[in-house]
Amino acid sequence: MNLNGQFFQNNEEFVTSRWTESANDSGANIYRNSKVGIGNVSSPAYQLDVAGDTNIAGVFYLNSNRLFADTQGIITLAASTINEDVDIPANAIASSNGPLELIDTYVITINSGAIWTIS
């Protein structure tokens, strides 16, 4: 069967997929230019919004920086320069490996009850 135009099922537009094949990689990759919810997230607040546990088998990157996970949390390679505003939430415990260069055009806020240790 070959259909041209819109196809409706139960008075709703029938859509087989809301994903689009990438123009490069010979169509091997797909993308969706919207927010995606996984795990009963009816109104995703982020590009990828997951409710529930998440398992990542492989390397995890944050802003192109490789992160390493251990049983206590996340270990990242030591950055030597803080080049963005930093806000450590109230009662949080944060740590960094020094020495660090603090760029004077950025603001570092350590809220009430928070601890930031630089070792």
Structure commentary:
By secondary structure, the chain is mostly beta strands. The protein has a domain at 1-52. It contains no helices and 15 strands. A hairpin with an 8-residue loop joins strand 3 and strand 4 (30-31). The chain starts with 7 loop residues before the first strand and ends with a strand.
- Total DSSP helices: 0
- Mean pLDDT level: 81
Largest sheet: 3 strands, antiparallel
Shape: elongated
Radius of gyration: 22 Å
State which percent range the strand residues make up: 35-45%
What are the defining features of this structure?
elongated, 3-stranded antiparallel beta sheet, 119 residues, two-stranded antiparallel sheet, mainly beta
List the helices and strands and how they pair.
Layout (H helix, E strand, L loop, with lengths): L7 E2 L2 E2 L6 E2 L8 E2 L4 E3 L9 E3 L9 E3 L2 E6 L2 E4 L4 E2 L3 E3 L4 E4 L4 E2 L5 E3 L4 E4 L1
Parallel strand pairs: 5-6, 10-13, 11-14, 12-15
Antiparallel strand pairs: 1-2, 3-4, 7-8, 8-9
Question: Brief description of this entry?
Answer:
With 119 residues, the chain is an all-beta fold. It has a domain at 1-52.
